[in-house]
Every structure is written in structure tokens, then in C-alpha cells.
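Run log, item B.
One chain of 103 residues. Sequence copied directly from the ordering sheet:
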Amino acid sequence: MGGEMVAPGEAGPDDVVLAWEGADVVAVRLPQLADSLDHILAALERGHGKPLAELDRRAKQETVRILEARGAFSVRHGVETVASALGVSRFTVYNYLNREKQA
């Protein structure tokens, strides 16, 4: 997901501080959601062993389903980012999403 560990004293208001036996041990700084989308896309590419744009249509549809389940399309410009990674148009991504909802 791309989080970063920081000292508890350096934790900001959006960081998650983890405690062990009552003492703050570490803080986790989560990336912006848009950065997380890039990490998710990279992980999916690693999992397939090739660029997402080289996947067949069925694999691209499955990828869109996975990304929707992970909230990728709630991110600003999420559809555009995914379309670019898949090498398809935004219209195609919307078609994949609609197909999934109809199934």
C-alpha cells in the first residue's frame, strides 16, 4: 500500500499511531489514496508478470473488478489512471464496470 513508518513523536494528525503494552511504538503514515492506486496497479502488474496493457480482454475485465473492489474508482481521475494502465479508453473501463454490475 506504500505506507511509511515514522517515530511516534513525528506523527501528524492523519497518521496512525501503534502502541504496544500501553506505549506508543511507531506511527504509520498512509499515502494519499491516489498514490495507493499506483501501488495497487504496480502490484497487479507484478502479479501478472507483464504490463496490464498486454493482458487479454477477460484479464482486463477481472483487473477492473479487483480495482473496483479496492475503491480505485473513488479516487479523483481513477478511471483515467486505470484506463491508461490498461491501454484502453475511459469508455471501455466504464463498460467493464457496467458489465460487472449487470452480472
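Observations after the first pass:
- The longest helix spans residues 33-48.
- Helices lie at 33-48, 57-69, 78-86, 90-102.
Flagged for discussion on Thursday.
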